[in-house]
Design a protein that fits this description.
Elements: H1 20-29, E1 34-37, H2 46-53, E2 59-70, E3 73-80, H3 87-113, H4 119-127, H5 134-143, H6 150-158, H7 173-182, E4 186-189, H8 199-212, E5 216-221, H9 226-239, E6 242-246, H10 282-290
Parallel strand pairs: 1-2, 4-5, 5-6
Antiparallel strand pairs: 2-3, 3-4
The structure holds adenosine monophosphate (AMP) and manganese (II) ion (3 copies).
Length: 291
C-alpha cells in the first residue's frame, strides 16, 4: 500500500462526488497519511476536511487548484499548504467563481442551440450549490443519454471545437502564484502531461512559474504514464523545482483513479513534502502572524 502523500484531490466543493468528510475517510482507510484537498478555484471544502481529519492519523494539507490562462491555453496551478482564510486568496478565487457562473450560462446557451435544452438547470443540480464546472454539464448530458459516459460527453461536447465548448478567460499565472504565496502556500504546476506542450513551451511555463515564485511540478499524477513520471522528474531536477504527487481523485465513479495507490517519486527528485514544516500548518501560521 502506498503511503506517499496525495497532494491533489477533489470534493463536492467543486467537481468531486465525495464530500470532504467522505474523501478524508476513504483516504485514511486506503492508508493515505497526508492528503491535500485541492478543489477547483475554491477553498470552501477545507474546513470540513480538516475537521474530518482531526481525529484520524491523517494530515490534511489545505490546497486549491487554480484555473489559469497561459499561452492561450488553460493551465492548472495547485497551491499547497496555504491559509484558506487569506483574504487575497479568497478575493482572487471569487473572481474565478464569478467567471465560472458566466461560463456555465454560455455553455448552456451553446448546448441549447445544439438541441440540448435544460443544461444549465441540469448542471446546477449536479453542482448542488457548489462551484460549477464542465464536469457537472458532462454528468447531466450523460444522464440524458447524449453520450455513453462522462468521458465521451467531454469528447463530443465540451472540448475545443465542440458545440458546448467555451474557452474560459481565467487568471494569469502571476496572479495565481501571487494569491497562493500571499496565503503562505507553495505553487505547483499540475499534471503537466495533460497540456501536450512542446518541450520549449513547457520550459517557458516552468521558467515563468519560478520567476513568479512558484516552486513545484506535479511529477506523479493520476493522469500521467510511468514514462511521464521520469520525464517530469527530470524537468523538475534540472530546473530546481520540487516534485509533487497527486491522484487528481474525483470520486469512485472514476475507478481507474483510486486513493492510496500513488507510486514514489523517481530517485533524485526532491519531494515537496520534504520542505521543513510542510503540512504542519506552520506555513499558514507564519502567514497569519505576518499579515
Ligand atoms: P473546468 O475547470 O470546469 O473547465 O473542468 C475541468 C475538469 O473537467 C477537470 O478537472 C476534469 O475533472 C474534467 N475533465 C476535463 N477534461 C476531461 C475529459 N476529457 N474527460 C473527463 N473529464 C475531463
Ligand atoms: Mn476536475
Ligand atoms: Mn486539473
Ligand atoms: Mn484536479
Amino acid at each position: 500500500m502506498s503511503t506517499i502523500p496525495d497532494l491533489h484531490t477533489h470534493s463536492t466543493a467543486s467537481d468531486g462526488t465525495l464530500t470532504p468528510t467522505e474523501l478524508v475517510s476513504r483516504a485514511a482507510a486506503a492508508g493515505v497519511k497526508m492528503l491535500a484537498l485541492t478543489d477547483h478555484d475554491t477553498v470552501a471544502g477545507i474546513a470540513e476536511a480538516q475537521a474530518a481529519a482531526a481525529p484520524l492519523s491523517l494530515v490534511l494539507v489545505p490546497g486549491v487548484e487554480v484555473s489559469v490562462t497561459w499561452g492561450g491555453r488553460t493551465v492548472h496551478v495547485v497551491g499547497l499548504d496555504l491559509d484558506p482564510d487569506c483574504a487575497a486568496l479568497r478575493d482572487g478565487l471569487a473572481g474565478l467563481q464569478e467567471h465560472r457562473v458566466w461560463r456555465a450560462e454560455e455553455i448552456a446557451r451553446r448546448l441549447d442551440k445544439a438541441g440540448y435544452t435544460g443544461a444549465l438547470e441540469g448542471a446546477r443540480r449536479h453542482a448542488a450549490g457548489a462551484l460549477i464546472g464542465r464536469t457537472h454539464f458532462a454528468r447531466f448530458l450523460a444522464e440524458q443519454g447524449a453520450a455513453a459516459d462522462v468521458r465521451s460527453v467531454f469528447k463530443r461536447f465540451l472540448v475545443s471545437g465542440k458545440p458546448g465548448h467555451v474557452q474560459g478567460e481565467w487568471t494569469t499565472l502571476e496572479q495565481a502564484v501571487g494569491w497562493i504565496r500571499a496565503a503562505g502556500g507553495i505553487a505547483v504546476v499540475a499534471h503537466p502531461a495533460r497540456y501536450n506542450f512542446t518541450r520549449t513551451k513547457l520550459r517557458r511555463l516552468l521558467g515563468e512559474l519560478k520567476e513568479c515564485g512558484g516552486r513545484g511540478l506535479e511529477v506523479v499524477s493520476g493522469s500521467h504514464s510511468r514514462d511521464d513520471y521520469f520525464t517530469f522528474a527530470r524537468h523538475a531536477t534540472e530546473l530546481g523545482l520540487l516534485g509533487s504527487a497527486g491522484s487528481d481523485y474525483h470520486g469512485p465513479e472514476q475507478p481507474w483513479i483510486e486513493l492510496g495507490r500513488l507510486p514514489a517519486l523517481p530517485d533524485g527528485c526532491t519531494p515537496i513534502w520534504s520542505l521543513p514544516g510542510f503540512g504542519t500548518g506552520a506555513r499558514a501560521a507564519a502567514h497569519k502572524s505576518a499579515a
